[in-house]
Amino acid sequence: MEGTGLGWIGKSVKRVEDARLLTGRGTFIDDHPPVANACHAAIVRSPLAHAKIRGYELSAALALPGVVGAITGEDVARHTKPFSVGVTAPIHYYCAATDRVRFVGEPVAVVVAKNRYIAEDAADLVQVDYEPLPVVVDPERALDADAPVLHEAVGSNLAGNRRLVYGDPDRAFRDADVVVNERFTFPKYASTPIETYGVIARWDLLDGVCTVWSNFMGPFIMHPLTARVLGLPENRLRFIVPADIGGSFGIKSSIYPYIALIALAAKRLGVPVKWIEDRREHLLASSSGTDRVAYREVAARQDGTILGMRFKWLDNVGGYIRSPEPGCSFRPTGNFVGPYRFQHLEVDASVVMTNKSLTGPNRGYACGHLYFETEGMMDRLADRLGLDPVEVRRKNLIQPDQFPYRTPSGGLYDSGDYPAAFDRALELAGYDELRREQATARAAGRYVGIGLALAVDPSVSNMGYVATALDPQFRAKPEYLAKSGAVDSATIKIDPLGRVIAILGTTPQGQGHQTVVSQIVADELGLVPQDVTVVDEMDTFTRVWSISSGTYSSRFGSVGTSAVALAARKLTAKLVDYAAHLMELPAPSLEFRDGAVRLRDGKGPSYSIKDLAGRAHWNTESLPEGMEPGLQATAVFGFTVAKAVDAEDRVNSSNTYGFIAEVMAVEVDPETAAIKILRYVTVHDAGTIINPMIAEGQIYGGALHGLGGALYEELAYDENGQLLTGTFMDYLVPTASEAPQIEIAHVVSPSPLTPLGSKGLGESSSMTVPAVIANAVSDALAPLGIRINELPMTPSKLWKAIDQAQRTPTGVSAPLASGALQPRRGVSEPRESRALRPRAGVSEPRASFSGHPRSDPTSRTSLQ
Amino acid sequence: MKPPKFEYHAPKSLEEALEALGRYGGDAKVLAGGQSLMPLLNFRLARPTALVDLNRIGSLAYIREHNGQIRFGAMTRQRTIEFSPVVAQRLPLLKEATHWVGHLPIRTRGTIGGSIAHADPSAEYPAVLAALEGEVVARGARGERVIRAGDLFQTYLTTSLAPDEILTEVRLPVMPAGAGYALEEFARRHGDFAIIGIAAVVVREGPRCTMARLATAGAGPVPVRLRAAEQILEREGLGEAAIEAAARRATELVTPDADIHASADYRRHLTGVLTKRALTRAIGVARG
Amino acid sequence: MVTVRLNVNGVAHEGRCEPRKLLADFIREDLGLTGTHVGCEHGICGACTIMFNGEAARSCIMLAVQADGAELMTVEGLMRDGKLHPLQEAFREHHALQCGFCTPGMLITALDLLRTNPSPNDREIREGISAVLCRCTGYQGIVNAVRAAAPILVAGR
Ligand SMILES: Cc1cc2nc3c(=O)[nH]c(=O)nc-3n(C[C@H](O)[C@H](O)[C@H](O)COP(=O)(O)OP(=O)(O)OC[C@H]3O[C@@H](n4cnc5c(N)ncnc54)[C@H](O)[C@@H]3O)c2cc1C
Ligand code: FES
Ligand code: FES
């Protein structure tokens, strides 16, 4: 598909990154030691979910030959500050436990040795004296008055609660013909990049500079926060990110406590220290999305028009609240309503701490949860009203003539044609035909179902959304500093022979930034992508960056590409001015086109980029008066629509908003409860697509992440707070055999806010697959009265629901022991019944039986 | 996740291996393919004083036909078995089972002896050993003994092998010509250990069933021979009703445990479902 | 300490290490061949897969000492005469990699698959590459690449 000449944008240009990655020449954090004589760290972690630390015994560890030294929570307490957190509750989150551990796997000490083998030997010898405390892992139980409290200073396990009211939800519910409600639970799962965390830290004690190499992906707000923790001025803390990161999907934003911890170890022990997280540590203690209990209500008219909704959320952030949490609740503030027009909404968001590992952004950050619930409610509403789920959705969609559309919670949807994209998905899937096939299959006793999911896909977070977690009264105080912004930068240099280097401050993890930027620059400057070299190793000392920099929340496709385009345009403007001077013509009569400055009317001589570059570099005398020598330009692009949250809690939490429409058909084997995906169609509107091949790659990957969370993956804990899925034998990452065939189509509504019209789509279908497959399975099992309201849908749980439904005579609802996969009868229970709060009593508390290492970090039993 | 320190021996002969093993009085471990033992070492869940590596003992890797049996040297790789024409012809059930064992790069190293000695009840080979009424040969300081499948597996990861014994050979009787066979398995992902697996063999003469064999993987602490279910088929033939009855009986013969992947009830239920499916498929390919 | 002599990508190497040193660590640290990646150290993710005497195997659950006398091929050995291997070409053509972390193990595994089954169907391709976990691609590009490379490898025999 590679073309020639202009128009590189929109082509599936093959990636420049691939050559090195295919031949084993990538530079990942563990590959090339940037410092000589680095020593290796092993982290001692808590085997208990909740305990007081009474003391440490290090002598045996320190006596081991090859050990350099160790630090413990005492050093952490003495020499660092806690990280700032995103709520006002007094929660002290240090880079390691200081006096109390609050989840299994929490760092308590670091041992540094000549190599990792010895460091692990020594870590085994560190003795920590713990006084066990009672444990709580369930977010509902954690709020009971008699629940063990994790942070005494807070007084309860509630890290924060906000009740956000938009419009007049009470009236909407009063006026409704029907009210449907449901309880949902969403699992704790993570994207587990195949490359784990890595940190290398070195101190130059004389100049007081700490340099840290790590596969940190941003946001770089964590840089000043870490500097504060370490007691360093920001310009003495240098973060360097290697060119290659082995996947992140949000998870690697949470590496920053380790950056502080390893930096501290390096400082205290006086040696450069390298720490590469292992998989056990990663599953125990890196980061994941939150598990959530949600109570949803929708108020509608008989014809399906939605009048309002109520959300009540309990987000479980684990033992502490680590920034950018509570983004789990507020990241989608602007798009709470999804693609629907209703104006009245109440959101009651509680952020709860329990003895589980900590959370943070995970691909689709908070949107997988949001749409699983909302789209589940759309189907329940359709069911209640006897309407087709397509019809209910169509009835409520925001219409194309309403853009730009301001949502009741402050989002500004920049562009889109939701009905068209939805129709495209239905048409591609052959929806009507699928329904006919389903009827035939059902008549034959088969369980075939069709699911739909629609979502507004937010990209480029506005940093300001985080403040939604704070009370408006707090935000109104004079000393409070409002927050907003979504900024990225790029620098482009033209060398004397007219070739180009573009320098970014991004931290790609496989998104192909080098390729995409070479396409944009080639188009802007009339070159071929091969003429453009793109450098994207982030270095806080040398790159232009802002606190919102980084490669997260699908930013690059929107904000990063915009900075590149603007930098290129600054340069072409300069070239036009320069050529005008050389040609002695007024600049407005000239333009930059096809790699040269030409007369607008197309006649007469032209100056090629190469020609101008040579002259400009070699002969500065030829520059017009006042023109700065050199051919380079830096552009910083910032969205002007990124405003701080207002007094009514409205915030445009992202900057560009794409759209996703999906249709999935599944068949459930009622005997084994195995789910087979028969068809899966996904239609995306991400504005202008710069490289379709790369965009589709993001969709394939995102969809499989969603499928993982829906069917396979869960960081499951027993009631003692022990992780039951602490190995890749038990934490089930889907393989190629589980991955579905995906049919992708695009609809393009260019963003009016970005120079290229592009939006992001890095998270894409990760946010819709949990919804679409839950809806499809619910539809398949509708004859049995089963509705999916809990993920992951493991075969064991699903079979239990099927079995119970089959045993129950029709019309009588089957009581379920756990909150699992409740039968749909009783969908519209009265609101008061929420007080009864069914408990998610996850039974089956044992790790699996197998000779393969399973996930009990405390058991050190040897085999046989 | 680095293994703890251990002493390492790589003997060239079985005698040397036994001698080395004997020296540690139960604190040494035999290293075969390492596909189960090495992960346990990396997690430091196993901490043997020494490893006795069998990989340099060439004489422990072979496939031979003898006296109506196929005999496998303990160090025969699963991969070798997968591509062995003898196995394909004489023990097609074992070939089919091999496809279910992990993935090809795992089978490159994993051995038949290791898979059986490891005694993971969710593993496929122990089920095949049980279904085919195979036996293993063990060598120790006190000499050689032959252990029948039924006497080998004791509980999770535990066999009747003494710590200083080495499993040297696995013997499986050649399957009767025309025997129908199937291994049906349910796992959450491709390549995972079975939640439930059922190995089935049937020999038919017209509508009659002269021999039926059924064994489980994943349905309890050891592979279970479903003798009472087999008898239903041998008594009542291979009709649908007999299959149903056998499958129902199968669920009563197992006492599975629960873990995070499956409840005990679900495993019991799957035992019936997969017994039916395995039998149906086995009967479909049976000749005679 | 033990001495390990082996041949990697056609080059003879010798190193000394503890018996417990994992082969993956030896390849990366002692031989400096960092193309082989480590993602789980318990045999599941497949990032560390190498050719061991011509057959794909996990280097994280083998000891370096076990490779004494062996012939290994790592991802660095795929390219010949400065040209990408047809499988590498196909990976590039079909966008079979994003972050590239699983890629070395994926390439070796796919090569082993195509050697043992030169014309696999899609189900066989998926089963074959199920040995390696990829978090980025959803596997679609990889399946396409292996399918496309199969006939080229057959023709090139
Ligand atoms: C990703 C992955 C997936 C897997 N999936 C499956 C699967 O689906 N099904 C399955 O069955 N297996 C599976 N396995 C395990 C694999 O089959 C192992 O190879 C097998 O269980 C053990 O064989 P081994 O030769 O590797 O033995 P090792 O790991 O070397 O040894 C295992 C145990 O047996 C002992 N032992 C080994 N050989 C002998 C002997 N000759 N005499 C006495 N004791 C001995 C060892 O001391 C050790 O305790 C998987 C492994 C991995 C890494
Ligand atoms: S690192 Fe070897 S399989 Fe994961
Ligand atoms: S390309 Fe990133 S894990 Fe496969």
Labels describing this entry:
heterotrimer, A: 864 residues, alpha+beta, Aldehyde Oxidoreductase, domain 4, Aldehyde Oxidoreductase, domain 3, 3 domains, 7-stranded mixed β-sheet, 5-stranded mixed β-sheet, 21 helices, 28 strands, 26% helix, 22% strand, globular, disordered C terminus, B: 288 residues, Uridine Diphospho-n-acetylenolpyruvylglucosamine Reductase, domain 2, Uridine Diphospho-n-acetylenolpyruvylglucosamine Reductase, domain 3, Enolase-like, domain 1, 5-stranded antiparallel β-sheet, 3-stranded parallel β-sheet, 12 helices, 25% strand, binds flavin-adenine dinucleotide, binds FE2/S2 (inorganic) cluster
Tell me what the structure shows.
- The complex is a heterotrimer of chains A (864), B (288) and C (157).
- The radius of gyration of chain A is 28 Å and the shape is globular.
- In chain A, the strands form 7 sheets. Chain A has a 7-stranded mixed sheet, with helices on both faces. In chain A, strands 7-15-14-13-8 form a 5-stranded mixed sheet, sandwiched between helices.
- In chain A, α7 runs parallel beside α8 (256-269), α11 runs parallel beside α20 and α16 (513-525) runs parallel beside α17 (556-583).
- Chain A is 26% helix and 22% strand.
- The longest helix of chain A has 28 residues, at 556-583.
- Chain A has 864 residues and is of the alpha+beta class.
- Chain B has helices at residues 14-23, 37-42, 78-82, 85-90, 92-99, 104-107, 112-118, 124-131, 149-152, 227-236, 240-253, 264-285; strands at 7-9, 28-31, 50-53, 63-66, 69-73, 135-140, 143-148, 153-155, 158-159, 166-173, 180-186, 196-205, 208-217.
- In chain B, strands 4-5-10-6-7 form a 5-stranded antiparallel sheet. In chain B, strands 1-3-2 form a 3-stranded parallel sheet, covered by helices on one side. Chain B has a 3-stranded antiparallel sheet with strand order 11-12-13, with helices on both faces.
- Chain C is an alpha+beta fold and 157 residues long.
- Chain C folds into 2 domains: 2-75, Roll (Ubiquitin-like (UB roll)); 86-155, [2Fe-2S]-binding domain (DNA polymerase, domain 1, Orthogonal Bundle), CATH 1.10.150.
- The longest helix of chain C is centred in the last third of the chain and has 16 residues, at 140-155.
- The termini of chain C are far apart.
- The mean pLDDT of chain C is 97.
- Classes of the chains: A alpha+beta (864), B alpha+beta (288), C alpha+beta (157).
- The structure holds flavin-adenine dinucleotide (FAD) and FE2/S2 (inorganic) cluster (2 copies).
- Residues 38-41, 43-48, 58, 60 of chain C line the site of one FE2/S2 (inorganic) cluster (FES).
